[in-house]
């Protein structure tokens, strides 16, 4: 074989072995859900779409499982500019974007698809609310329909009375579970497994995805299908940081975020019933309490918790026929 051919083969081999060029924009995004849980899969989809739309010029570096802190720390990191993006429960984010408290209200949407339709139809209004609080909204993921996991079966709302139920650190959640007769106990998600295991709390409101992903059935083997909340998980970044990006990267982020959110919401909806069915194999007792007493107990919250003009405007838009 000639030296020229050998030289050409060496060049080809070197090019093949060379690592891919790093993206011009790498955005760190963090969340507290387990790796490969539905929210994490949504961010993986967003990364895939962002790389496609920018020909690899932009990508996401995903940190699941609370590696960079609890949800409050993640949101504050975005505000301070030490973290590019966060994907947290709306229930924490609404402490910073007060208009988003609307999404914390019980029994607001009958299904995830119904929620998605309202989000898409009112995107501009929601984006304005986020911008006014210093955030850029990129997508609205689903964290599923919230039920109740406990260490004893719950057949009716009366069975909730006096139970120490973990809630998120959100005033609407606290007041809702107080209205249902429980002793609401706010705490960080990262503390919940240990609190259930040690009996610090008797149960917690939770989605089937989290119940499965974090294996809470090991310490709370009873799951009551109350469907009290259709919870969102917005993806946000600092507005000033977003505004400083080139227009093509801004557009790609917005498109990737919203497209990934639609994909993720449908994935969560498709997973709901199969997940619930799978719990039986883990020894879980599934109950189906009458939800009407829970719904009636929730009604006063709409008056007491939605008090600002922005909250009322968004609520009216989301509930318009």
UniProtKB/TrEMBL annotation:
**Keyword vocabulary terms for this entry:** Periplasm, Signal, Transport
Name the domain of life this protein comes from: Bacteria
Supply the InterPro entries for this chain.
DctP_fam, TRAP_DctP, TRAP_DctP_sf
Give start-end ranges for the coiled-coil region(s). none
Kindly indicate where the leader peptide sits in this chain: 1-22
The subcellular location is: Periplasm
Family affiliation? Belongs to the bacterial solute-binding protein 7 family.
Query: Which NCBIfam families does the record match to this protein?
Result: dctP, TRAP_S1
Fetch the PANTHER family from UniProt. Answer: C4-DICARBOXYLATE-BINDING PROTEIN DCTB, PTHR33376
Q: What is this protein called?
A: TRAP transporter substrate-binding protein
